[in-house]
Amino acid sequence: MKKLAFLIGFFSLVMVFQSHAQGAGAVITFKESSVDFGDIVQGQKVEHTFVLTNSGKQPLIISNVAATCGCTVPTWPKEPIAPGKSGEIKVSFNSAGKIGQQNAVVRIYSNASEPIEKVSLISNVIVKSN
Asked: Is the pLDDT of residue 14 over 50?
């Protein structure tokens, strides 16, 4: 009898974990997670709007979006995103003072099944020729 109770409890716990892993909570799905602008001239500003969808079953709450440096500025939705609905994270990159390959990474912190997601703007900053 004790073994049966243990097995029922164990399988119940496994099912809870599986339902969470299968998207029972919020799940972020990006249309794309990076954009490559190719060559840009030093001092040029580029921006992209990353479209995301909450493909989970609970509202998605983005608590913070952080860039790796002050040259990259993100804006994001402050209101919860309902299941099946979309939102946008706009990211701008200022190449002033930069040169060569750049990968401006932005981290998205949320209540999603993957609590930290990343998007990035990629570019090759070249010096402006006279």
From this structure: no
Domain residue ranges of the chain, discontinuous segments joined by +:
26-126
pTM passes above 0.70:
yes
Under a CB-based contact definition with an 8 Å cutoff, are residues 60 and 84 in contact? no
CATH class of 26-126: mainly beta
Which pLDDT score is estimated for 129?
A: 78
Residue 115: CB atoms within 10 A of its CB come to 12
> In this structure, what is the dihedral angle of CA atoms 94, 99, 103, 108, given to the nearest 10 degrees?
-30
CA dist 73 and 130 (Å) reads 29
Q: What is the DSSP string of 114-125?
A: SSEEEEEEEEEE
